[in-house]
Amino acid sequence: MSADVQLENIGVQFGEFVAVREASVTITGGEFFSFLGPSGCGKTTLLRTISGFQLPSTGRVLIDGQDMAGIGPNHRPTALIFQNLALFPLMTVWENISFALEVKGVGRTERRRRADELLEMVALPGQADKMVDELSGGQKQRVAVARALCAEPEVLLLDEPLSSLDLKLRQHMRTELRVIQQRAGITFIYITHDQGEALTMSDRVAVMRQGVIDQVADSTTVYDQPETAFVASFVGENNAFSGSVAEVSSESVLVETTLGIFSCRTSGSSSLSKGDAAIVFVRPESLFFVDDVGARNRLDATLVNQEFEGHFWHLLLKARDGHPMRMSVINDGRSSRQQTGSDVTVGFETNGAVALPSGELAAD
Amino acid sequence: MRSETILRLSIGFYILLFFGYLFGPLVIMSITAFNSSNFPAVSPWDCLSGEWFGVLVNDDKLMTGLRNSLFIGAGVVIVAVPMGLAGALLLTQLSRRARSVMYMVTISPILVPGVVLGISTLIFWERIDRVLLGTDFFYDGFFLTIIGQATFISAYTMLIFVARLQRFDPLLEEAALDLGASNMQAFRKILLPFLKPAVGSAAVLAFLASFENYNTTVFTIVSESTLTTILASKVRYGINPSISSLAVIIIGLTLFFAVVYELLRRRERSDKEKRLAETAKTNSMTRRHRPMMVPATALVLVAFVAMMGTSWVARGYSTSECKLRVAQEKHKRSEALSQQRISEARAQRAEEQAAKAESPALQANTEGRQYQNIFTPSNLAGQVDSVSSDSNGSSTEAAVDANKAGREYQNIFAPSNLSGQVDSKESSD
Amino acid sequence: MSVWFQNFFKRNGIGLSLFLLIAVFVWVVLMIVLPQLLMLDFSFRFNWHHMNPSKMGGPDDVYTLTHYKFLVYGSPNNPDPFNIVDVTVFFRTILAAIFVTMFDLALCYPIAYYLAQVAKGARARFLVVALIVPFWVNEILRAFAFRILFGEEGSLNSLLLAIGLLDEPVDFIRENVALYAGLGYAYVLLMIFPIYNAVESLDRNQIEAARDLGAGWFRIHRRIVMPFAKPGITSGCTMVFMLTAGALALPQIIGGPSSLWFTQIIYQWFNTGSNWPRGSAYAIVLLISCVVLLLFLMRLFKVRIGEIGR
User: Fold this and answer.
1) Mutate to test the interface with A, among B179, B187, B196 (most CBs of A within 10 A)
2) Nearest to A32 by CA among A194, A179, A146
3) A62, A8 contact by CB (below 8 A)
């Protein structure tokens, strides 16, 4: 059983401080939806508003079409997985998991049975009688998920659950969670500041900045077609060149910058007119050395540093005006290596660059 | 390096001295419990005897006091633990301003002198009786004492709960709510189990604090008694080693519980470590708890040796024989001494009669004090309150009269006498 | 205000809310505030309570300062300009309490420091237990132990006589040595633990850094440890001072005839004196003086009241 979640113009204010401003989004039932943004952008507040621990100053939360105003967290069809998991330290694993049933007065044998079932589903068989502090980080994660699932919610809310795990475990859990979600078939609302997580796990992503939702789209769209400068700079790595629009055509936009006039495509619904302040965004993987092939846009730079990351090289360049640039080259053994410190010319195609109205960039 | 060793030595010496100061009086008192002399003393040592334990048990007043103390202690636990818990819980739900005000108000009974608490409790409930009810319902030693003690003991329990609550993750309650629990369920299933260990220690603390309380109790106990008030009143009637035997019992119990508690805690620790070691599947370094084993085994050994030694000595030893012997010696000594004193006193009195006339008060005081000072060993035989002839045959009338006269002026506790207390030759009103 | 109540009841459910409110109300109002206020009120009334109960509540039951006056001036027949005895006793009690507090501080600070920073692991725990055990023994029994020790026939005298330091037994009790030794001993625990708690949370590295920079141990304590432990020290001193000034059992048991304690006078007004209002007045004076002194002390050392607490 999964439900739609609708946020209608949600605003949350603490005294003078506005945590969330006019957030509106519709999340479809059964979807894996993420709120992505840096710390302090309001995503936790939004989550707590959906789960009922926070009252919105304005707007409504509707779950399955029903207004949640006045309904407390213990009566909403939601279950929340806290950032620090909040597992009950004085109970065993199976008691933790079946707590939602204990609250309803279900008998002990039935609760135990259900807990064992859920442990199977989260791939933790046989751990039922352990105490919580005897488990590893990843195991605790799964217990938290199982506990929430036992409440049979229509919407599962996850508050940065993987942030305390090490890299390998995080990557493993990403897949696990996705699998569990598809198996359970319920709506997952996930918040994180790690865009890699958001992109790999979600059906759709909402990028948030200082209490405002900048863009809602699926992973590829958010990556390839950012709608604001913030989204372009926050999601993935991006080189940004400021300038002003010189010419607009149906297929491309010409932007004049200090490093040259670049031909870029536009993105999404943003409309640029001549003379607007704009930023040209070029992904590191869209840059290539011009010695090998020709390019629509080119600029000169000095190769400052090269870092080997395994399956690609991460290059740090400096343009004529000192502007730092990032470039990534696949390690296929083919492309010739440049000397660190040498002058190079790099280029990119129109399709490899996006021009967006000038705006706030993500902090480095 | 040498100065550091000196420093270490002096610190060690200081600590030794300190703990000597702490334990010394208790050790000495314990030893006096086994001395058959009538007054608790280590020397002169009369006979090894366990008779004072018997006297203790047969002391009805003391036993009643003990019973009352236990009853009141239980009552205080029943009142103070829930009150402290309520206070601690309420504190967490108040705004910052209200919280600090409430905190100050509830902590104040700890700082206020116990006598003030006792007095205010007494006056308050007596007034309620008189004004509202017109009966003696609340004017009862037990009720007043429980209430009076609970006033400040609840503050102690509250502090314990506050400390425990500070370690509670509030998200746990939220998680419970999120999973569908009502507020009451979250309280019962999540918060209370977490507080349980605190309840235990709060109850123990409340009981002990109540059991040993005197300042407040002495006002609120009215016509009843507790162990502490009985003990304190003994100072007026003279003390005997049965008090020391009480101390021995209490010290023994305390040590016993201290050891038990430590052993229990030790076992819980090693249990937990074992469990964690299994899960981690690594070679955990189970610290061998040797350091504490040494003093503990030493204690046991000492106790064992002491028991063996005592039973061996006791076999060739009879308390009654020894007492007879000692009594005879004492008798001889006191005879010689009192003869000496009588002749001295006669000479002195002749001197005094020759001097200027003194105020009767002064004379009576000085004479009476001679016989009143129970701290003078020779007077233990001379302490007389009634006319009788002692084994010497001499009449003790003079002593009795002097006593009576002196006491009139000596009782500084009678308010009218505060101005009448004379110690020197000034003329009074 | 009513909003708060609504939220409160909603948050805790009816049963729990009622329990919390009633329990705290009974405690704070019926047991703490009202009795104190009543005692204050009582201290300003004539002693009809004992002398003529029928007059209570009647027209003669007016406010009066007679008891407070008595404390200062004595009875109307008093030839002296002041109530020398009571006033002397009062000041002696306060002064003695101050000295005992300072003595305890000097005595306990090294121990607390040692426990908190120097002693390790099992030995520290053992010492802590060793510290607590004597205090589980009844205060009264401990007082008696001192009496046995310090009496004219007591062990201390026997020891000193045996060694040859004394020719005649000294009545320590009369000389008040016993009382002060006993008072110094009685509240040691309450001085040690707050200081111990405060010093324990001090980062040991700070001390090492200071030593590394060449500071001697005296300077280390004065400039680093003590300022850090100030709340603990103040807390300990507060408790010891209040308890010493308000001590009753110890003076009664091991006090000599010339070391009357103010609390004993209060007790007598209630007991043989049968003058409850006067006793209340004296008690109020004791209470107020202690509080005033304490506030002054806290202001002097710049410590807030919220920092006092275990």
Assistant:
1) B179
2) A179
3) yes
Instruction: Return all residues near C102 (Cβ < 8 A) that are at least 6 apart.
Output: none
What's this model's pTM, rounded to 2 decimal places? 0.72
Burial of C304 (0-12, 13-18, 19+ CB in 10 A): exposed
- Specify the amino acid at residue B96: R
Both A148 and A193 in one domain: the answer is yes
Compute the residue count for chain B.
429
A175 and A52 inside one domain: yes
Assigned token pair, C282: 């004296």
Same domain, A216 and A255: no
- Give the span between the Cα atoms of C47 and C38, in whole angstroms: 15
> Is C54 in the B-facing interface, judged by CB distances under 8 Å?
no
What's the complex ipTM?
0.83
Cα dihedral across residues B116, B117, B121, B127: positive or negative: positive
The single-letter code of the amino acid at B121 is T
Distance CA B323, CA B326 (A): 5
Q: Strand A260-264's sheet: what is its strand order?
A: A260-264, A253-257, A239-248, A277-282, A353-357
Q: Which two tokens stand for residue A15?
A: 């005294």
Q: What is the share, in percent, of chain B residues with pLDDT greater than 90?
A: 14
Provide the 8-state DSSP code for A126: T
Closest CA of chain A from B202, distance in Å: 20
Q: Which of B317, B337, B314 is nearest to B325 (CA)?
A: B317
Residue B113 has which token pair? 């002198």
Cβ neighbors of C59 (< 8 A, separation 6 or more) are none
What residue ranges do the domains of chain B occupy? 2-51, 54-270, 319-418
Does B40 contact chain C (CB < 8 Å)? yes
Domain with A176, as residue range(s), is 5-224
Q: Which CATH number fits domain C76-141+187-307: 3.40.50.720, 3.40.50.2300, 1.10.3720.10, 3.40.50.80?
A: 1.10.3720.10
Q: Do B124 and C153 touch (CB under 8 A)?
A: no
Distance (Å, whole) CA B161 – CA B184: 19
Candidates B8, B104, B115, B424: best to mutate against C (most CBs of C within 10 A) is B115
Place of tokens 């603990």: C232
Cα–Cα distance for residue pair C255/C92, rounded to 1 Å: 13
Which residues of chain C have a CB within 8 Å of the CB of B117? Answer: 35
| Tens of pLDDT, residues A113-172 | 999 998 988 888 888 888 988 898 888 988 998 999 898 889 999 999 888 888 888 888
Say which residues have a Cβ less than 8 Å from residue C53's Cβ, sequence separation at least 6: none
- Range B295-304 average pLDDT: 64
Q: Which residue(s) pair with A244 in the sheet? A: A256, A277
Q: Is residue A334 part of a domain?
A: yes
| Reported CATH class of domain B54-270 | mainly alpha
Whole-angstrom Cα Rg for chain C = 25
Residue numbers of B between 137 and 196 with CB closer than 8 Å to A? 169, 171-172, 174-182, 185, 189-190, 193-194
The pLDDT tens digits of the residues spanning B37-79 come to 777 666 666 666 677 777 777 778 888 888 999 999 999 999 9
Q: Can you tell me the distance from the alpha carbon of A299 to that of A303, in angstroms, rounded to the nearest whole number? A: 12
Give dist(CA B22, CA C133) in Å, integer: 10
Largest interatomic CA distance in chain C:
79
A282 CA: distance to closest CA in chain B (Å): 43
CB-facing half-sphere around the CA of C295: CA atoms within 13 A: 5
Cβ count near B139 (within 10 Å): 17
Question: B403: phi > 0 → left, psi -120 to 50 → alpha, else beta; which?
Answer: alpha
Query: How deeply is B291 buried, as exposed, middle or buried, from its count of CB atoms within 10 A (0-12, 13-18, 19+)?
Result: middle
Distance, in angstroms, between A175 CA and closest chain B CA? 25
d(CA C249, CA B235): 10
